[in-house]
Amino acid sequence: MDFFASVEKLKGVGPKTAEILKKYGIRTVRDFFYNLPRNYENYEAPTSIEEIHPGKVVIRGKIDSLSTRRARRRNLSVTEGIIRDETGAIKVVWFNQRYRIKQFSPDKEYFFTGNYEFRNGRYSLVSPSVAEVADVDPETGLSPIYVAHGALKSRDFRRLVKNSRDIFNSIPDLLPSVAPGTRKKALFNAHFPDSLKSVAVARDYLAYEELFELILAARLNRRENEKLKAVAIPFNLAKIREFVAKLPFNLTGAQRKAAWEIFQDMEREIPMNRLLQGDVGSGKTMVAALAAYGVTLSGHQVALLAPTAILASQHYEGLKRLLEPLGVKIAILTGATKNKAELKRQISDGEIDFVIGTHALLTDDTEFKDLALVIIDEQHRFGVEQRQKLALKSPQGLAPHLLAMTATPIPRSLQLTVFGDLEVSILNELPKGRRPITTSILTEVEIQERLYPEINKTFKSGQQIYWICKAIDSDSRAETTSVKSRLAKLKRDFPKMNINFLHGRMKPAENDNIMEKFAAGKIDLLVSTTVVEVGVDVPNASLMIIENAEAYGLAQLHQLRGRVGRGTVASFCYLLTSGDIPPSRRLRELEKSSDGFHLAEVDLKLRGPGEIYGALQHGALDLRIASLSDVKLIAKAQKDAVDFLKNPENMLKYKELMTGISKYQQITTLN
Ligand code: ADP
Ligand code: MG
Fold first, then answer.
1. What are 404-463's pLDDT values in tens digits?
2. Which domains occur in the chain, in start order?
3. Contact 394, 231 (CB under 8 A)
4. Cβ 358 vs Cβ 331: under 8 Å
5. Which residues partner with 545 through β-bridges?
């Protein structure tokens, strides 16, 4: 039997089963074997019913008296029965698992694993998982548990895997960097465990394999990128020096270094593929401005993409102030732009040097005469396809240089794996004079007593305030306070203050208008949804209040908090919670640390990479087993993947590997 044959070829897989499997992405025998057990039950030492205690138990026994009924609560079916062993009998109950009624033969023995607990006035075993004793290896007592796929339950997978036991021997090797046969042994042991130790060894190998593929994909992307041609941008030291000298502040050392790295990249005829990571407020825009200026000096065009209209117009205003006096022709193109056709003509004729915009920039009829640099602010907001689209706009088959900026630092482990095709510059230094932000968790009942005095104090000293709400309108069912209801309340409580609001359902022009007023200091307190999250820069704002803080992720909270602390006065951030339950680890970490790099590592541990980079690669990063916090294993896979690529023949020889990694290649491609 061929490892790559259709899954239908497996014994016991008919058209119906194959249909279900396909729905879950299992098309071939290979896919089927890589559908690894989620867990293993250990049946070595079941409890006798006589000795049962509340809590997790494994019982070995027979079952009878099965019946199903509807519970009083709608949509709930209750299936009950009696489990017996030689020492006694207990009640068992399952909810919404009606198939259980037909599952058992009265004369067969089963293992039941679940919680023995007090429910509805008596003790029962609640929703246990089940394995037939005959199915469990009598020597080891271990039984793999598979994730149910539709109608296919764990035991169905066990049965099918058992049917294909003989095929394991024909599994070919995948990687040259491990001993021959390692792979088939690992897959076999994962499905037919003979001890927990051999399971661990198997999983270690499979995790390594996964990381190897991920890293190899990133490395290959880097190679692909190096095959592309870009226009070389000469570095005009004199002009750049002049520009820097005129700035009202000194660049930080980190800004200088990043700009230098960018200029060096762009001097090559290979497209730059660089990620600029800097914590909120570290001055990424200034680095972008330097890069953009350098490119326009040599007569080419630059595009900057921002995730929101507010941010695009703020970048536009700031960059115009900086660059227009130097002769750079700069324009903004968003959904709200009037006379788009004329502007687009100017862009395609090369009359505009530097265009800033949102997604509107990506519409198909925006043509550039000579686009040499694309800057993407908050890169995790843009999908890969959008980025590719923009790269295609460069004429003569030349790929533009690419600078992606993000305030969500990428943990080192991800940098080595998923983002291994990127060069990285880091702004790990805040501009001088910044004061740290003091963060506190407060409960809603403390608003009047603790928060209101802070608001008054901030207002009196002429500083400004953000108040973030989750929802726009009030909904009687929702537990979150809306922008509108909070606005009304604050207006009542602070009649002297100029309070306004902002949210994503407003027209872009309205949005801009409010933001401009806030930036100009004409609004004292701005009640807003998270539309102000990314990038907005109002140095005079020093108080950030985030209501329903538990509703946001760590990275998002850090971003929101980063809207303050941009000036020279001390800033404060209050995270409001209902107080019903103790604050989450997320909030406590945020209270302790203002270091975005540290918080990103914490976030990776708490939520996993798929969540963090959700928008960018939704689902694609669902690693089967590898943990992206396993630094040692990553280092090994990294070294081996690099060695693999040193021998060009490998790419022809290891076909399965090369085909398998294409799915990873897509998530990491920038150009
Ligand atoms: P972010 O990295 O979050 O995008 P910005 O580029 O918005 O940060 O910069 C934050 C603020 O810091 C802006 O007001 C900017 O003008 C200012 N800034 C940038 N570089 C420096 C510097 N070297 N010294 C002082 N202020 C700076
Ligand atoms: Mg920014």
1. 888 777 766 677 676 777 788 989 888 887 888 999 999 989 999 999 999 999 999 999
2. 44-135 (2.40.50.140), 437-593 (3.40.50.300)
3. no
4. no
5. 467, 574
The DSSP element (H or E) to which 242 belongs, if any, is helix 237-246
Q: 605 alpha carbon to ligand 1 midpoint, in Å?
A: 30
Beta-ladder partners of 89: 84
- Can you list the pairs that 514-517 forms with residues at least 24 positions away whose Cβ atoms lie under 8 Å? 515/310, 515/313, 515/314
Give the angle subtended at the CA of 671 by the CAs of 296 and 362, to the nearest 5°: 65
**381 pLDDT more than 50:** no
Kindly indicate the confidence band of residue 617, based on its pLDDT and cuts at 50, 70 and 90. very low
CA 33 from chain center: how many Å?
27
The three-state secondary structure class of 96 is coil
Q: Which residue has the higher pLDDT, 607 or 567?
A: 567
Q: Give residue for tokens 């969540």.
A: 611
Beta strands in 8-52 (DSSP E): 39-42
622-635 tens-digit pLDDT: 556 666 667 788 88
Given a cut of 90, whether residue 104 has pLDDT beyond it is: yes
Is the CB of 284 within 6 Å of ligand 1? Answer: yes
**How confident is the model at residue 393, as a pLDDT?**
66
Check if 375 has its Cβ closer than 6 Å to any atom of ligand 1.
no
Per the CB < 8 A criterion, the answer to whether 544 and 559 are in contact is no
Structure-token pair, residue 136: 């469990």
Which residue bears the tokens 């509340």?
54
Choose between 228 and 558: higher pLDDT: 558
Nearest CA to ligand 1 atom 19: 283
Cβ–ligand 1 distance for 37 under 6 Å, the answer no
Distance of CA 525 from the midpoint of ligand 2 (Å): 22
For a ligand 1 pocket test, name from 249, 251, 255, 285 the mutation site with the most ligand atoms within 8 angstroms of its C-beta: 285
Hey, CA dihedral for 364, 367, 370, 373, is it positive or negative?
Answer: negative
pLDDT, residue 648, reads 86
Residue 254 CA, ligand 1 centroid: distance in Å: 12
Residue 429's Cβ-side half-sphere holds a number of Cα atoms within 13 Å equal to 12
* Cα(281) to centroid(ligand 1), Å: 6
Residue pair 405/276 in contact by the 8 Å Cβ criterion: yes
Q: Which ligand 1 atom is the nearest neighbour of the CA of 255?
A: 23
Q: 278 CB less than 6 Å from ligand 1?
A: yes
Lowest mean per-residue pLDDT among 46-60, 153-167, 614-628: 614-628
- Nearest ligand, CA of residue 431? 1
254-289 confidence digits (pLDDT tens): 999 999 999 999 999 988 888 898 887 889 999 999
Query: Rg of the chain over CA atoms, in angstroms?
Result: 30
Whether pLDDT at 387 is above 60: no
Q: How far apart are CA 662 and CA 656, in angstroms?
A: 10
Beta bridge pairs of residue 202: none
> Of all protein residues, whose CA lies closest to atom 25 belonging to ligand 1?
431
* Cα separation, 88 vs 57, whole angstroms: 15
Ligand 1 centroid to Cα of residue 546, in Å, is 23
- What is the rounded distance in angstroms from the CA atom of residue 415 to the CA atom of residue 135? 44
If one residue of 537, 561, 564, 571 were mutated to test the ligand 1 pocket, choosing by the most ligand atoms within 8 A of its CB, it would be 537
pLDDT of residue 475: 65
Ligand 1 center to 87 CA (angstroms): 74
Decide whether any atom of ligand 1 lies within 6 Å of the 539 Cβ.
yes
Q: Ligand 1 pocket, 566 CB below 6 A?
A: yes
